[in-house]
TrEMBL record, chains A, B:
Residues 90-214 form the GST C-terminal domain. GO terms for molecular function: glutathione transferase activity. Its EC number is 2.5.1.18. It is an enzyme of class 2 (transferase). Keywords: Transferase. InterPro entries: Glutathione-S-Trfase_C-like, Glutathione-S-Trfase_C_sf, Glutathione_S-Trfase, Glutathione_S-Trfase_N, GST_C, GST_Phi_C, Thioredoxin-like_sf. GO terms for biological process: toxin catabolic process. Belongs to the GST superfamily. Phi family. SUPFAM superfamilies: GST C-terminal domain-like, Thioredoxin-like. Residues 1-83 form the GST N-terminal domain. This is glutathione transferase.
Amino acid sequence: MALKVHGTVGSPATFRALAALHEKDLDFEFIPVNLSAKEHKSPQFLAHKNPFGQVPVFEHGDLKLFESRAITKYVAEAFADKGTSLIHKDPKKSAIQTVWTEVEAQKFDPTVAKLGWEIVLKPKFGMTTDEAVVAEFEKKLEPLLDVYEKRLTESKYLGGDSFTLADLHHLPTLQGIMGTKVKSQFDARPHVSAWASDILSRPAWVKVASMLTK
Amino acid sequence: MALKVHGTVGSPATFRALAALHEKDLDFEFIPVNLSAKEHKSPQFLAHKNPFGQVPVFEHGDLKLFESRAITKYVAEAFADKGTSLIHKDPKKSAIQTVWTEVEAQKFDPTVAKLGWEIVLKPKFGMTTDEAVVAEFEKKLEPLLDVYEKRLTESKYLGGDSFTLADLHHLPTLQGIMGTKVKSQFDARPHVSAWASDILSRPAWVKVASMLTK
């Protein structure tokens, strides 16, 4: 059954889904969705792809999924024997991995995506960066990265000793923020810095990130 | 092996974890954490319970978990044969359930928790409700509940034909908001309204919610 991803180059959520598919060495069709033309808000897209009008949307035969972290989880489980194993099978290891997957979704993403919006995206759209918001979220990031530093002293990856979805989910926002002054917060913490370099240089992610320069 | 929950009565995240444990008919020890006394920020708690200094924390023998949605997932999987089945075993049904679990975490919770903070909690703490924020988030909730209404026309529960974690995760924020004027948005949508009444009246949830009046 053919796999399809409807998404947009540069969309962090799209890139999250693509990273999982490449880690799994899967062939799939990428169908670009033109956000500028509001294709994702068309009645067709809302009715048949994602009622929230967002990318990515993933199709596997008649199964249609949205929400990038739901897509990666399905891909990791449905194609467990292909490519990189992105999940732990042992229930306790799996539970720890889920804890750190939640930390990404509940803590890292809201903080780093906000910084990315202010520092990277607003200037791109001709809007003015709100320095007070940047300062507020830079301050929030410090204790968060302190916890990451401690965690990465105990295990090589967030979810345990091997690379899993708990790490992979960070990639799109991490990539964006490492091109800004906020990188210094990562550099200041040796384990966080090594972890970031490690996961950003994975071939599957390099393949995804290279779509930006094509 | 004994199960323990370190948590606080009234904390939405604690209540989310407790709801799962009661649905599973599990015996566990509830260890109150006094947030006013900042017990959750003590060096002991940070080092041995949750490095982020939050409740709940769940223990199953030597396994220690934080993040409420990671706890419910572990409980649902590790005790699959006890009480209510909170997850689908079929991979495609499970994937759809995960989509709606993500919708709760990424869309419902940030909107409804914000409204609850402004309307319920701020007055309780002697702070002033920001009506502009209330209006902004009430407006965000409308299209979200429209999608819920459509979804609940297709299946009785968000994650499929049976009650799962995709529904359960909504309970703490849903309970809080139904005592406010925002309830009218739920009442205006027949399927959403029926779903909310249904899940809020589940015996396991009633047991959790009754802790507030003890």
